[in-house]
Design brief:
ten-stranded mixed beta sheet, 2 domains, about 30% helix, alpha/beta
C-alpha cells in the first residue's frame, strides 16, 4: 500500500511530502490552513495595521476595497485555469526549449490528431506529444506519426481535488498505459505537471514528474522489454533544464520525480496479461499501487 498515511515513520515523517516535496491536498491540515489564510486576508487591516505603515493605502482603505480586490483576483485565477492545457505546455516548455535551440516543433492542433510534433535537434530524433488536462481523457482519438522516435503524453493537472500525491499521480498514468497497450504504441515518457500539488524548486518552479517506460511495450514476442538509459533520453534532460534550470537527470532533485514503469507480458492459462510496477528512481521502495491489465488487441480479419 502506498496511501500517504502508510508512508509515515515513528516520528510522523512522510516521504511524499517531507522527502519528495509534494503537497498533500487530502488532509485535514490543508483545510485548517485554508481557513487561516481566509481569516488573515479578511482581517488584515484590523489585525496587522502596521503592515500599511510604508504603503500608500491605509488599513481602512484595505478593508473597504477588499471585496473588489478579491473579485478581481478570482477573475484572474479562473482565467488562468481556463487556459488551454496545450497553451500552457507551449509557454512553459516548448517555446523556451525552441528558443534555446534544443528542439523545433509544429503545433498540429486542428490539423492532425496529435497536438505537437517536432524534432530534438542534437539527437536528431522525431518526437510527438499529446496534451491532456485531466485524467488522460480523449486518448482514443490519437494518431501517432509512424516515424516517431519519442512518444510523449503530457498531463497538465489543474484540479484541486482532495487526493494524496500518490493517487494524483496514479489516476493519470493508468489510462494512458492501457491506451498504449491496446493500440500497440510504444509510449516513451509521460510528463505530469501539477502546479497545485507538485513539488517545487527553491525558486518556486514546478518540478514535473516523469514516468519512463521500457524501450518497447511488452508483447508475446517481447515479454520483458528493457528500460532505456536515462542518458539516452535527451528529451528528459531538456525538460528538466528548461523547467527547473537543472538538466542533470541523475541529480537528487530530478531523481525524486522520475518514475520507472516496468511492464511484463505474462500468459496465464492462455490469457495474456500485462504485469505492472511503478517505482521511484531516487528511492525504489517508494512505489505506486497498480494492477495488471488484460493484453487486448484487435485481431486480424480471418
Amino acid at each position: 500500500m502506498t496511501d500517504i498515511e502508510n508512508w509515515k515513520d515513528d516520528r510522523g515523517h512522510n516521504v511524499w511530502t517531507d522527502e519528495l516535496g509534494f503537497t498533500d491536498l487530502g488532509t485535514d491540515k490543508r483545510e485548517e490552513i485554508k481557513e487561516e489564510v481566509k481569516d488573515i486576508i479578511s482581517n488584515l487591516g484590523e489585525t496587522h495595521p502596521d503592515i500599511f505603515e510604508d504603503k500608500e493605502i491605509s488599513p481602512a482603505d484595505y478593508q473597504r476595497e477588499l471585496d473588489t480586490a478579491i473579485h478581481s483576483i478570482d477573475g484572474k485565477i479562473k482565467a488562468e485555469r481556463g487556459k488551454a492545457s496545450e497553451k500552457v505546455v507551449r509557454e512553459v516548455f516548448l517555446d523556451p526549449a525552441k528558443e534555446k535551440g534544443y528542439l523545433d516543433y509544429t503545433d498540429q492542433r486542428g490539423e492532425e490528431r496529435i497536438d505537437f510534433k517536432g524534432r530534438i535537434l542534437e539527437a536528431d530524433e522525431a518526437f510527438s506529444m499529446d496534451v491532456k488536462g485531466g485524467e488522460g481523457q480523449s486518448l482514443a482519438h490519437l494518431l501517432v506519426p509512424s516515424n516517431t522516435d519519442v512518444l510523449t503524453v503530457w498531463s497538465e493537472r489543474k484540479s484541486r481535488n482532495t487526493k494524496s500525491p500518490d493517487r494524483r499521480l496514479n489516476e493519470v498514468i493508468n489510462r494512458v498505459v492501457r491506451w498504449a497497450i491496446n493500440h500497440d504504441q510504444d509510449l516513451s515518457l509521460m510528463i505530469i505537471r501539477d502546479p497545485k500539488a507538485g513539488a517545487r524548486t527553491d525558486d518556486n518552479k514546478v518540478i514535473p514528474d516523469v514516468v519512463v517506460f521500457p524501450k518497447q511495450f511488452p508483447s508475446p514476442e517481447n515479454p520483458s522489454p528493457e528500460f532505456p538509459d536515462l542518458d539516452d533520453i535527451e528529451l528528459l534532460g531538456i525538460l528538466y533544464e528548461v523547467m527547473t534550470g537543472n538538466g542533470d537527470v541523475y541529480s537528487e532533485q530530478n531523481q525524486k520525480h522520475i518514475w520507472w514503469h516496468d511492464l511484463e507480458y505474462v500468459n496465464q492459462n492462455g490469457e495474456g496479461r500485462v504485469e505492472k510496477e511503478i517505482y521511484n528512481a531516487y528511492d525504489n521502495s517508494i512505489s505506486l499501487i497498480t494492477q495488471a491489465i488484460h493484453f487486448d488487441r484487435i485481431s486480424d480479419v480471418e
